[in-house]
Amino acid sequence: MINNIVKSSIAFDVFSFGNDKVSGSADNRACYWKNGEQFWLGILAQESRVFHGFFHNGSLYMFGWHRDTANANQRACYWTQDGTRTWISSVEDSETRAFRGFILDGDIYAFGWDDNDAFEHRACYWINGTRTFLTSATAEAREGFVYNGELYILGYENSRACYWIDGTRTYLTTTASKGYGGGIFNEDLYTFGYDAVGSDDRACYWIGTTRTLVGVSGVDSIAYGGYVYNGDVYTYGFEEYSGDNRACYWINTTRYWLGDIGEYGAVYGQRNYNGKVYSFGIQKDGSDVRACRWDGTTKVELGLAGYATYCQDGEIKV
């Protein structure tokens, strides 16, 4: 479960996680930005991505994938701040992803999928590199955390939003849907994602299995995550506007635009520092999308202009 809320009046740093292009290179390369300054993680000319980062005992950990030069597969891994990479997946001949992770009692947890040599995404998690499958169906584990001694995993299976508690799955809907993130807030389980309503995919969240729609009817929208702050539910993602997906977030069911009109964008991560919202994502810049963040409503561009780059998450370090 991501800690989206930071309360402090001390000076702080804004970390952003994603991938950028090296000018003249064809590959996207994992990196992070500290207050807008970029630091490379992935090896040049080998594709890699960072989806999530967090601090543990003062050290920065970042989860994603890197192409394995031995077999060209994309393998789940994590990096520390000095750029040291550790493979999460010990299986070299299958492709894997790590979307989220955390450290508990010295154990490193990671959540994602493994194609199991069959080119089908199977939701799984790793503890210190030991993989456990959650299902034999096509599925992804997008978030995980421990609460009251039980392991919660959020995601989707067979194109239906669901969660697992200690391996037992609960579907959230009977329609086409996905869960992307969430956590325990005020002792309730929240899952953020989207659900199909008529011909639209609509951003929503579930408390337990009870759904609340935040995206308006008539257009598509997706929620990539959310949290509860001062009793209000924050949900972030995108909503279609004038034919393009436009970055936005919702407080309860009130939407706040971030991206420019007519420019494709999305919010993939968000943090709340002393009541100010920091959003991490992308917005179209010319013909390509570009990694960026928004400090409140002020956009800060991160990725190299003229290339497709992504900011997948962020963190506030005080």
Structure, described:
The mean pLDDT is 92. With 318 residues, the chain is an all-beta fold. The two termini are 19 Å apart. It has strands at 5-6, 13-21, 28-34, 37-40, 48-56, 59-67, 74-80, 85-87, 96-104, 107-114, 122-127, 130-133, 139-147, 150-157, 160-165, 168-171, 177-185, 188-197, 200-207, 210-213, 221-229, 232-241, 244-251, 254-257, 265-273, 276-285, 288-295, 298-301, 310-317.
Strand content: over 45%
Count of discrete alpha- or pi-helical segments spanning 4 or more residues: 0
The CATH topology comes to Methylamine Dehydrogenase, Chain H
Task: Measure the end-to-end span.
Answer: 19 Å
Largest sheet: 5 strands, mixed
* Name of the top-level CATH class: Mainly Beta
Radius of gyration: 18 Å
Q: Overall 3D geometry?
A: globular
What is the number of strand segments?
29
- Per CATH, the architecture is 7 Propeller
Q: Could you tell me the mean pLDDT?
A: 92
- Which structural class is indicated by helix and strand composition? mainly beta
Number of domains: 1
User: Helix coverage percent of residues?
Assistant: under 10%
Low-confidence stretches: none
Layout of helices and strands, plus pairs?
Blueprint: E1 5-6, E2 13-21, E3 28-34, E4 37-40, E5 48-56, E6 59-67, E7 74-80, E8 85-87, E9 96-104, E10 107-114, E11 122-127, E12 130-133, E13 139-147, E14 150-157, E15 160-165, E16 168-171, E17 177-185, E18 188-197, E19 200-207, E20 210-213, E21 221-229, E22 232-241, E23 244-251, E24 254-257, E25 265-273, E26 276-285, E27 288-295, E28 298-301, E29 310-317
Parallel strand pairs: 1-25
Antiparallel strand pairs: 2-3, 2-29, 3-4, 5-6, 6-7, 7-8, 9-10, 10-11, 11-12, 13-14, 14-15, 15-16, 17-18, 18-19, 19-20, 21-22, 22-23, 23-24, 25-26, 26-27, 27-28
